[in-house]
User: Which sequence fits this backbone?
């Protein structure tokens, strides 16, 4: 890869990093090609894009990214790195956990989710348990519906008692 090609790759990475606030770095080393393809399939089903990148190029892209907190991911750039982007904060963590039922890897190196940096594979359970935006909206709607349902239930019970008395 010549210098011009490297610059182009770095520019593309910077653009993707600036456009996303949910970024995961995973270690897929020691996985066979077949297992990497199976992992990519699991990620695709969860709407997670996966790209294997060179650490040196990703380091330069992280340094040039608009969000200065992304440099917190640089210490995780050792060994082979799979870069994962998603719109749902917990989707990559769930994909990794699901795939690890069959294999020991991929391992979570680091993640940048909602302006926070998470380092190490021990953060995987925390990230997988995070609620997505849609799950949070669903919970709020359920909380808002609960009092209304109790009022309606009480009115229906009162109406049933009135009809039984008449």
Assistant:
């Amino acid at each position: 890869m010549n210098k011009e090609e490297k610059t182009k790759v770095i520019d593309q990475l910077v653009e993707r990093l600036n456009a996303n606030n949910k970024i995961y770095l995973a270690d897929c080393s020691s996985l066979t090609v077949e297992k990497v393809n199976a992992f990519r399939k699991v990620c695709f089903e969860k709407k997670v894009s996966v790209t294997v990148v060179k650490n040196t190029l990703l380091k330069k892209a992280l340094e040039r990214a608009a969000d200065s907190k992304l440099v917190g991911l640089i210490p995780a750039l050792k060994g082979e790195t799979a870069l994962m982007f998603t719109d749902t904060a917990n989707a990559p963590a769930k994909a990794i956990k699901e795939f690890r039922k069959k294999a020991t890897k991929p391992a979570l190196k680091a993640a940048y989710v909602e302006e926070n940096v998470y380092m190490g594979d021990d953060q995987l359970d925390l990230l997988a348990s995070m609620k997505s935006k849609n799950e949070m909206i669903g919970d709020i709607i359920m909380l808002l519906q609960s009092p209304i349902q109790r009022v309606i239930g009480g009115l229906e019970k009162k109406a049933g008692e009135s009809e039984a008395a008449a």
The radius of gyration is 23 Å. The chain is about 55% helix and 15% strand. The chain has two domains: 3-130, 131-166.
